[in-house]
Design a protein that fits this description.
Layout: E1 4-9, H1 22-30, E2 33-38, H2 44-56, E3 65-68, E4 76-80, E5 95-96, E6 102-106, H3 117-129, H4 133-153, E7 157-163, E8 182-184, E9 193-195, E10 198-202, H5 204-221
Parallel strand pairs: 1-2, 1-3, 3-7, 7-8
Antiparallel strand pairs: 4-6, 5-6, 9-10
Length: about 220
Amino acid sequence: MIRKLCVAGCSVSDYTDVDLPYGKILATDLGVDYLHEGAGAGSNFRIWRRITNHILDKTITEEDVVVIQYTEIVRNEFWSALPDPGPKYTAPPADLSHDGGRVIRWKPAAHTWQPHDEEKQFLKEFEQYFVSPRFSEEEFRVNNYNFQQMLKNHKIRTIFLNTTRSNLISNYVIDYFQPSQISEDTHSDPKYNLRENDTCHFSEFGHRYMANELKSHIEKLGWI
């Protein structure tokens, strides 16, 4: 049995111009609670931070199922003391954080949508001088290994969604989670895509398809 479903990822798994993402659809189909950790412009660092904290706080336990949808490895996040710009600001939001601050999300060109000049300048210089794909691969290799060992130690039932909609290094799933890994490669078929010129995000049809695939996968794993 499953108590709760949690999906963690980037905009691929978020409410990106659709009413319901695949995680919410799947949770409804399974009749379980849903914890949404998909985030526009989200990073793998955000996934590691949010899921680890949920496990430490026991809001995720071995009674639950977690779906991890990793994103491109160069993405990052930073704490900012600058104030929340309010609901009129429509770019990818930040996470509220400690000491009255926010955790802002960086991916290439992220400086173009920041509400504060200080954040624009910081993220622009970060992208120009402080990003190395090779170093990001090393960071991902280490952090991903530690994260998966933590999931294994806590006996968290985890599915790693290997989707071609994200730019990932290969062979990132340890042997323990290989049986529960699932792959997705539908971006070449327009009906699964949000728009004709957007092969990164699911259409509503694509989200329903992904929910059905995950449900069948969970059934095969014997979790329901």
